[in-house]
């Protein structure tokens, strides 16, 4: 299980579910908010072209609503087109400078376009919003970008900040373990994996990574248990094959 991209964390940013149904939406009026809601419905149903048409209709009627710009960016980002998503997220932030979810997605889009410094700048701006309920997620995003740039110590420092804010934020412990492992600090990595374990009970990749770290510090009985758990959770997978190979070395 490799280090996650920023987008993997951003999937945790809460978007209101909207009112989905199996048929076409039938709003009582056709103002910008109604077109926006229809766009959400269509996109949740996989009807992307119709969703974009409704978003554009909403923006033609009024371009003042930040959530409409954000959702257009979200559609493009979800489709793997960060270049088209960026101006939409920027427009949302122009209309609401405290739109922190938009800043997080903008940072991910910048990072996807090979602009890590711009991404880090947006995340730092996001951290200035002291009312945002989950700053630890912003910090993990920042740490992931720093680590990909080879700035492992700054990344670890940022992850410690996230853990200080929320000690049971298991993702932060896991990413800490990954960086420590990558830099040859297996004993410290094992401790971080132990802290992360409650959040990854059914994750085969986690159990393989944890088992591998345990093997490297010669805790072979515990390593064996973790590797067997990885195989049990994902039989026939690449992870299971790697776990079986390492088990062969232990046994």
Give a structural overview.
The model is unreliable at 1-28 (pLDDT under 50). The chain has helices at residues 6-10, 32-44, 48-61, 66-78, 82-95, 100-112, 116-127, 135-148, 152-165, 170-182, 186-196, 204-216, 220-233, 238-250. It has a domain at 1-133: Tetratricopeptide repeat domain (Serine Threonine Protein Phosphatase 5, Tetratricopeptide repeat, Alpha Horseshoe), CATH 1.25.40.10. It has 14 helices and no strands.
- Total strands: 0
**Which range best describes the helical content: under 10%, 10-25%, 25-40%, 40-55%, 55-70% or over 70%?**
over 70%
The arrangement of helices and strands along the chain is HHHHHHHHHHHHHH
The CATH architecture of one domain can be named as: Alpha Horseshoe
Biggest sheet descriptor: none
Give me the number of helical elements.
14
CATH superfamily of one domain: Tetratricopeptide repeat domain
Indicate the topology.
Blueprint: H1 6-10, H2 32-44, H3 48-61, H4 66-78, H5 82-95, H6 100-112, H7 116-127, H8 135-148, H9 152-165, H10 170-182, H11 186-196, H12 204-216, H13 220-233, H14 238-250
Helix pairs in contact: 2-3, 3-4, 4-5, 5-6, 6-7, 7-8, 8-9, 8-10, 9-10, 10-11, 11-12, 12-13, 12-14, 13-14
Brief summary:
Mean pLDDT is 90; it is low at 1-28. This protein has 251 residues and is mostly helical. It contains 14 helices and no strands.
């Amino acid at each position: 299980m490799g280090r996650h991209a920023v987008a993997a964390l951003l999937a945790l940013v809460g978007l209101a579910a909207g009112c989905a149904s199996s048929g076409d939406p039938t709003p009582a009026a056709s103002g910008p908010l109604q077109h926006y809601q229809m766009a959400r419905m269509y996109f949740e149903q996989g009807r992307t072209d119709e969703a974009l048409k409704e978003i554009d209709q909403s923006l033609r009627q009024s371009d003042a609503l930040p959530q409409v710009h954000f959702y257009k960016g979200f559609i493009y980002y979800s489709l793997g087109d960060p270049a088209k998503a960026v101006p939409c997220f920027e427009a949302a932030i122009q209309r609401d400078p405290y739109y922190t979810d938009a800043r997080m997605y903008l940072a991910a889009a910048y990072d996807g376009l090979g602009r890590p410094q711009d991404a880090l700048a947006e995340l730092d701006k996001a951290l200035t919003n002291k009312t945002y309920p989950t700053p630890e997620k912003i910090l993990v995003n920042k740490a992931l970008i720093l680590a990909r740039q080879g700035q492992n110590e700054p990344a670890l420092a940022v992850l410690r900040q996230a853990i200080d804010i929320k000690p049971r934020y298991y993702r932060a412990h896991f990413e800490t373990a990954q960086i420590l492992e990558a830099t040859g600090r297996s004993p410290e990595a094992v401790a971080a994996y132990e802290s992360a374990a409650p959040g990854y009970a059914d994750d085969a990749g986690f159990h393989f990574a944890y088992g591998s770290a345990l093997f490297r510090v010669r805790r072979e009985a515990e390593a064996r248990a973790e590797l067997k758990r990885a195989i049990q959770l994902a039989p026939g997978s690449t992870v299971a094959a790697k776990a079986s190979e390492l088990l062969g070395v232990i046994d």
